[in-house]
What does this fold into?
Amino acid sequence: MKPRLYFDTSVFGGILDKEFEDVTTKLFDMVRRGEIVCVFSNLSETELEHAPEPIKDHFLSLPDDFTEYVEVTEEAFALANQYLEEKVVGPTSADDCRHIAVATLNKVDYLVSWNFKHIVNVFRIRGYNSINLKNGNIQLDIRSPKEIIKEDDE
It folds into this structure.
């Protein structure tokens, strides 16, 4: 079974960011080769509506066989609100919390993000997962794309 990775919106935007472009391209190459499944949500789609055209085109070009669409449900909203109520992050990070919640509830293998302030941060991850465990959910493994890609052996 292929690993299922939830991509938050920052990963899609990484294709136009000089700092992240190379690693992001390698990550999406893994999707195109069928090595991993790119899981995304209706929240990702909504956030991408305001993205530059090359990012939208890149998103739309992903092969359906290696992508999976999930929805932010009422249960995900409730879990995201719990992250906020317990002050894992502040109220401006509500959408980040929804990404975390939907990835948790859909039991993905990894959530990948370039957001080091609110998502890929050891203290935040500990906070999200303490709430996940308290609610009987999985511990979500959160990584940057750099930790996922396979570097060529030289």
In short: Residues 10 and 114 are 6 Å apart (CA to CA). Residues 122-134 form the longest helix (13 residues). The helical segments are 9-13, 21-32, 42-48, 53-60, 74-85, 94-105, 122-134. The chain has a mean pLDDT of 96.
